[in-house]
Amino acid sequence: MNASVLVPLPVVLPLLGAGLALALGRSARAQRVVSVVVLALMVIIAAVLLAHADADGPQVMHVGGWPAPIGISLVADRLSALMLLVSVVVALCVLVYSLSQGLVEYGPDTPLSIYHPTFLILVAGVSNAFLSGDLFNLYVGFEILLAASYVLLTLGGTADRIRAGSTYVVVSLASSIVFLTALALVYAATGTVSLAQLAGRLDELPSGVALLLQLMLLTAFAIKAAVFPLSAWLPDSYPTAPAPVTAVFAGLLTKVGVYAIIRTQTLLFPDSPLSDLLLWAALLTMVIGILGAVAQDDLKRMLSFTLVSHIGYMVFGVALASDDGLSGAIYYVVHHIVIQTNLFLVAGLIERRGGSTSLERLGGLARLSPVLALLFFVPAMNLAGIPPFSGFLGKLGLMQAGVDDGDRLAYVLVGGSVVTSLLTLYAMAKAWNRAFWQPPAAEPDGAAGPTTDLHRKPLRTDAPVSSRVAAVALRAGMAGPAAVLLLVGVAMTVFAGPLFGLTDRAAADLRERAPYIEAVLPGGAP
């Protein structure tokens, strides 16, 4: 089987699904079926692409039959196929969660005509960014993400969401302007935007010109990845969105920026003079992000700051520019996509069960819902890096790579990684204690309780059928995807050996560069 014919499908299928879902906007059930079927097919396609990329090398499709560098190339190598598979698995879980949430809040027959098409367009943008073989198409993928994410971020039209969405759009547009300017300069200097062709031509540029281009690309991607000091926008933007939107943003959008950093740093600038700058950025991202998390009293804002902090681990691995460092970074990206999404989905369940995400108002949830307590505890400890979870294994791999590097700054990063991990444990333990362990906060006289009887009490057998359906959907349909992601996180621990083997091979390909270049440009044409 020639797997290259499958490469465009992760982009084309969600776009077609978005159009079909929009056409079926009056039928909620039809929209749900279309969205779930499209994402389920994408999971299968991504798994097949990863298997072929690992066994046979990069799978390339030249769109329209125009070969690179004239036409647009879509490339599924080990790195992009792995990122694609993890992203669509997470997107499918978030979609199922959001369907159940919509069933509870709006009823089974209420169509969400905008949500489904926009969600699928977002997935198409993510897929396009991962598979893109040229810088301009990568820019297009980011712009698709921007358009779709703004709609999702402002769903409901509340003042807080519009304000957060406006901040997000302004920052995203600023990064897009920097990226577009860098694109123009790259084309002016080299005459191409094909990544494979740029890998050779950038080496021929004067060092000052190449450094300027690298700085501009890094700045654009660092904003999108929320690398300090370009991360202040994230904690104010994400927590206001609905739980599933926040979850998919936290899991995927920043990782597209991290992916772009990995791809360009290894393929275009393999002997980067900016390694020390990246190491300092990684250290500050880790430490300042986690200090912000420790200071928070709201669960969503705490998780948003931990999201920023742990981007630093990924940048650490990229900055080391060794096989082990890159392998650890890729493993940690995969781990973080799953765990961070899981935690934000659980935060949505906590908000629905306890009526708030404020740690001052929550309490006693372990007694009321032991399952919810477990759903939070396992990924929280995984994020903190408690042995033997995947978070511990990923951090251990990165720290080992830092020790092997032997540089003084690398040792500083190893120490910063340990401190960040301990502070993450403190933040997660604080959240666990306040939300689940301590007694619930007393409500003022006459104030409404933290949640409704439907969410707090056992389901009555004489309750209306609609109430029973809603309760079942809440408990199974929303908790189910969170439980699936929990199991995926555990599976990453159980199968850490094969997964690290895959990331090792992906890192070796990135460092060698030849497999990617020769797959896109047969013969290695300059």
UniProtKB/TrEMBL annotation:
It is a multi-pass membrane protein. It is found in: Cell membrane; Membrane. GO terms for molecular function: NADH dehydrogenase (ubiquinone) activity. One of its GO terms (biological process) is ATP synthesis coupled electron transport. GO terms for cellular component: plasma membrane. Keywords: Cell membrane, Membrane, Transmembrane, Transmembrane helix. Pfam families: Proton_antipo_M. Residues 132-419 form the NADH:quinone oxidoreductase/Mrp antiporter transmembrane domain. The chain crosses the membrane at residues 6-24, 33-53, 79-100, 112-130, 136-156, 168-189, 209-234, 241-262, 277-295, 302-322, 328-350, 371-389, 409-429, 482-502. The keyword Cell membrane applies. InterPro entries: CPA3_Na-H_Antiporter_D (IPR050586), NADH_UbQ_OxRdtase (IPR003918), ND/Mrp_TM (IPR001750). Its main location: membrane. The keyword Transmembrane helix applies. Belongs to the CPA3 antiporters (TC 2.A.63) subunit D family. This is Na+/H+ antiporter subunit D.
